[in-house]
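Predict structure. Chain length: 508.
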Amino acid sequence: MELAVLFGVCLLISGVVIRLSVGLAARFGIMDCPGGHKQHAASTPFVGGFGLIAVLIGAALLGDPIFSEIPFLPLAAILVGSVTIFLTGLADDIWHLSFKPRLAIQALVALSMVFLGGVELDSLGELLPGLHINLGLLGVPLTVFATIGLINAVNMIDGVDGLSGSVSMVSLALITLVAYAGNAGGYVLFTVALMGGVGGFLYYNLRYPGNRRARVFLGDNGSMLLGFLFAWLLIALSQGNHAAMTPVTALWLFALPLMDTVGVMLRRIWLGKSPFRPDRHHLHHLFIRAGFRVCDVVVIATVMQIVLGLVGVGGLLLGVPDYLMFGLFLAVFAVYFLLILRPWRLVPGLCRLNRSLGLPSVHIRGIFVGSLRKEQWPEILRLIAAELGTAYAYQFNVYQLGDSTLDSRNVYCVVHVPAEGNDFLIGRIRRDAMRIRRRLARQGMAVRLFVCRDFENEAGAELMARDGSRSADRRGVRSTLIYSAEHGQKLVHGDDASFELSVPPACR
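Prediction complete.
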């Protein structure tokens, strides 16, 4: 009950502070504007970190109930480090700092964690049979390196709405479980408070019915702050004589962000590029290019993190040797790295996975109904209109092919729906198409989704882009637009509306 109340209070604090911060974001330039490699279409406030820092300060003001097991100096180090990293991220959100000053400040914060907070990597555990690896003098530089890595790992996975917050929520829940099992009561309260802070952010950032896109972003101020807190928790709970977990377990509890960050940076180095140069080859980007909706990507990534985290927790509770758990982690990472190394091979496989799971594709642009006789289409359109209703905007286009088939089924209809970027509308279109298909199945008509494909990751993308017009011409079909209407309102109706219809290979 105490934990539930704490979670609820921190959830409320985070939500209220973020809501108040939204009104100030535009005035101070804390906005993420569209353009470049960014996919969102509207300027969005970078204020997710405001809720987290408010929860931290509020938790510190509560004093003994939350930080009863943390001495004054470590507590001061947590607060000073958190405020410093938050302000650094905020400055980056506003003025776009280069990576050098960011890394320098992150290193200083890591050093304060070591020398003020007493949180340091002393041991890596039994990574080889019978060999416990104690770091000695290497402890400080490796702590700094690990802290910088974790800070940037959260930042790099923050690529689509709800992803970083959902994965962080799972990791915090697993850390809470491990801390509770290891009798680290102070950290249990601390992580529950952080979960409340992340939950308040997810209310604005996660896509759900009634919230079709993120209203706020985490920003560097939030992602760097979360990364620093993860570094503190994972190192503090995995070191010392009364550690709640092994260092290898810490890898599993943060597995997905860690593998994504290291894998992408290694791929950039392998291609001869700077590891700090942004690109669109993170795992969530590849899922999006394969046609997965953002909400589906978030669910899949969250499930992946749950599975990976539970593997680590299970190994800890069952007493599996560190070297076996570490070897398994390296094997999982090797498979992951080989998959993302060549995106043009992975994306087609993800497309097949999307279809096999029966998930809607982000490339859906409407519904296609073919094999109609000319006298049938008015009745069919009335049926389609009755099935679709008026819940969303759509446009009918009815075409008659220039050539005639034996049974004169030379008319087809395309229902165009402006669904790009609307995950829930895409899902509804798919359900409507399936319902229409069942209604028309006995009449010998073809009903399927109208999909516009994206060949960006295929090996022949550049060639197709260069030769696309010629290919379209070869596929060109002489067709006549015989009816066009929007929400039942007649736009064009008559055989004089004739035009050359070229169907590009990217659409079907």
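Summary: The two ends are 55 Å apart (CA to CA).
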